[in-house]
User: Fold this.
Amino acid sequence: MSEATQVMGLKAKLGLDVFKHDSEFHIRIIPGCEKDPRLKKAILVCPAGLYSENSQGEVELDQDGCLECGTCRIACGSDLLDWHYPSGGAGVQFRFG
Amino acid sequence: MEGRFNAIIIGGGLAGLAAAYTLAEAGQEVLLIERGDYSGAKNVTGGRMYIRPIKDMFPDLWKKAPFERGIAHEEVCIESETGSILFRYSGQETAEAPYQSYSVTRAKFDKYFAKQAERKGVSIVTKTRVDDLVWTDGKVDGVVAGGDELRADVVLACDGVMSLTAEKAGLRKPGDPKHYAVGFKEIIELDQDLLEARFNLKDDQGVARLFMGDVTKGKFGGGFLYTNKSSISLGVVIGIADLMNEEPHIPAPEMLELFKKRPEISALIEGGQIAEYSAHVIPEGGYNHLSKLYGNGILVCGDAAGFSINSGITVRGMEYAMGSGYYAAQAVLKAKDSGDFSVNGLSIYKKLLDDSFVMKDFKTFKDVPEAMDHKRLFTYYPELATSIIQKLYDISDGPKGRIIPTVKGMLGFKEIWEIVTKDIRRMMKL
Assistant:
């Protein structure tokens, strides 16, 4: 746990949640779409901050800490993202929710 | 998991559990498939459930329900960049149990509801993802899950706001950002005595506080705070289209950090410990953007169908989830009587919903999403309200002006014209 009034990094905040490892990637940027400007919206909307832009101008996705909310799928559409839920019993397991 | 079930329910959230509970009570063989470790593991609420519209549907459920606090105090906080106004409504009728709404956390509540459903005879399989629908002669005939084909007379898609099942059944399309918001929140644990003192709460009383204005930086949405027993649910909800497109471009997680830094919030959470961070998408399109509710051998309930209403003052979803699950179960029982699980036989679901509080509310509030999609509500009015209050209380050097002329001075002819001709007409739809 962490003091509520102190700014903590997003990774540390996600570290408070329970995640169970999944052997497969449940969200995949469709190959060739990494530089699509529409994909950059994911960087703004993802509550877990999992999307970022690398020095080549490509959008990258780090799935550790995915809250499975689906905001990226709504913002970017299924043309850019191959989006599934994690396998049964994997992914985030909220203790409060 | 052999044989054929009367119904297979995809998703063990409130809609799925409500349907399963009701069907099992009527003696049906029901299989409920949940992908989390337990019901509630994948669910998030802001925090509060209104129970009056649904309490008679599940009479045995409430007495031992793990609610956090009864909402005795309704608050609204209007924020400008530099100030805030707080309203608190407390009435005799809201002061004690039975309360009309309760703060809840989903992991606790859904787990409890699942246990009650199992007691009624529902078979619940957790840690299992439904991968596909099984079709026979153009009718949904079951599901594929965990590598098995499982068959049933009818399948209920209760798999939440991103319902991939309803998409596969052709009953909905992937969402348009304009019709969805994303909410993200922290659970902040706080010493119970301190919490009760800070919010002026007696016994099991709780408070619900909604925020509008600077919290969303001019974007569609607002903030929320609900008191639980010994924690606070604190979060922000923002329209996805606005989050993507409207200036200033601020990443979602940072919006919550900025909100927490505001003085009226930081004082409330001081000394608290963050225990969890969660996020969830909320359907905000209302009546005009509901999914198709039934197909051949399939019904859609809860968030999967789009059953959530933001009326500005109240934000409701969970009781519509439970209500639609209940009516889906009634529809299945009627379809069983007539032996017709086709699109025809299941159309009774829509009729049952139309006659219920669910669809009546959706029709009543059908123009609200459009009326609320108005930038001035999130910028101009909060700024105006706080600057009027600021001027009223301001005693600076020299003489003070009279109240009404001071307020009038802040509203030029152009502003009054805009308010009367455009905004009032718009607000009449709320």
